[in-house]
Structures are given as C-alpha cells and as structure tokens.
Amino acid sequence: MKIIDRLYKSVEEKGFVCVGLDTSLDYIPAKYKKDKSISEALFDFNKEIIDATKDITAIYKLQIAYYESYGIEGMIAYRETLKYIRDNNLLSIGDVKRSDIAASAEQYAKAHFEGDFETDFITLNPYMGMDSISPYEKYLESGDKGVFVLLRTSNPGANDFEVLKTGDEELFYTVGDRLQEINEKYIGENGYGPIGLVVGATHTEEVEKIRQRYKDNFFLIPGFGAQGADSLNVYKLLNNKNGGVVNNSRKVLKAYMEHKDGEDNFGKYAREAVIKTREDILANESL
C-alpha cells in the first residue's frame, strides 16, 4: 500500500488529528525528568504521549528544531521516537523544512528517508525552485514516502512573499500548480498523491478555493490550537473529514498543566486534548 493511502486509511480509522511532538524539556513534569538524561526524558515523555493517543491520532509530527537544540542528546531522542512510532506501525512526519538543490537535496532525502532518522513524510520549502523538490521524486515514485511542501502558511510573515502577484494570481498558487503537476503522476487508490501541501487555517478568505484547486493533494494543516485558527477554516480544508491532517502540538503536550493532578496524568490529558481538537472541528459539520 502506498504511504499516502496508508495515511488516508489512518485518518479514516482514527480521525484527522496530527499530534505534534514538538517536545521541550520545559513541557516535561519535573519528577518525570529526575535522574534521566536529556534523551531519556524527551523520549519517555514522547512515548507516554504516543501510547495515550495512538488509537485516535492519524500521524505524529516531530519538529526537528526541538531536538537539534539539545544537540546529540536531542537527536538520540528524535531517532528513538521515530523508531518507536515505526515499531508500533504508526505514521510520522519529520518537520525538517529542507530547501536545497542537487546533491545537497539528495543527501537530505537520504538522511530523512533512510537510516537513523527515517520517517514517512518530511516537510520541504520550495522557494529555491523545482530543483529543490525533484531530488525527492525517486522516493515518491516508489510510493513508500511522501512530502508536505509549504504552500500557504499560517504565520503572520506568510504575507511577505506568498501573496506577491505572479501574473494575475498570488505566488503560492504558482507554487501549488507546479507541485500538482508532479503529484498527478503518482495518485494512489484513494485519489491523493504523495506531494502534500502545508496549508494554514488562518486565512479565512482562501481556504475553500485552495481545497477545491488542490483536490488531489493531502494537506498538513497548522494554525489550530496555540495559533488560534478558526475551526470552520480547518473543516473547510478537509475533504469529507479526510484529505488532511490537523496539527496540534502545544495544546496537547501541555494540556496536563491545566489540571492539579496533571503531572501524574499527562498522557490522559493529552488524549483528552486530541479528542477535543477533533470535536471542535467536527462541530462545523452542521453548518
């Protein structure tokens, strides 16, 4: 089964929530860190979150910066977390946002699609041009791997460049159209290809057009949770409750902090936060 079809099936069975394991030592209860190395504390916390949510989470996303910031110890935790996800037959996104060309891009692909840091999907930044995307294509051809490429991001600075006009339309549509040309060559049995798009849910006036225009692309949808995107925007970026995954990181990882017994039950409260994310978005079904 192609990786994009595995993701479609995972969303169908478990819902569309993507848990972001953007784990900082500051998020981990003090007593859970006691007498542990940095790598052990990060991994053990991640493992608890995964175990508590794996039946209701479509995929896990690891933002690599959180691990790189702790040096070798952090990258050991990154490696072990990805391995644990893989060993449990779950899916992962390495949020690495690579952007380079030729041999350098080939090495990035090898680093994150093979070996210690192997993951199912990675994120890419396309703004060096299509030769920053093409080196990954051999992994897409096989159907074993996929990418999520930045299209319309949720951050305030997205408007600095993404909406600049190229002809009659904004730049991000030009980017999306070029990516769609590659994606169409590798459509899976559920109607989606391995080139997904990162589409933030903070741009109300655009979400319906983007969903319609890129109907064959799976979306990674940031902005919900700590960034405060409207749940209706998120719902519109999905396609009949599939075709996308909705990332929630801090609101899940730090959910226990809102409860007196949280430090002893952070997995439980992470699970409740995942369920609430799903419920908040599905509340728009009747609208």
Automatic annotation (TrEMBL):
One of its GO terms (biological process) is 'de novo' pyrimidine nucleobase biosynthetic process. It catalyses: orotidine 5'-phosphate + H(+) = UMP + CO2. Pathway: Pyrimidine metabolism; UMP biosynthesis via de novo pathway; UMP from orotate: step 2/2. CDD domains: OMP_decarboxylase_like (cd04725). The active site is at K97. Gene3D superfamilies: Aldolase class I (3.20.20.70). This is Orotidine 5'-phosphate decarboxylase. It comes from Anaerococcus nagyae. The gene is pyrF.
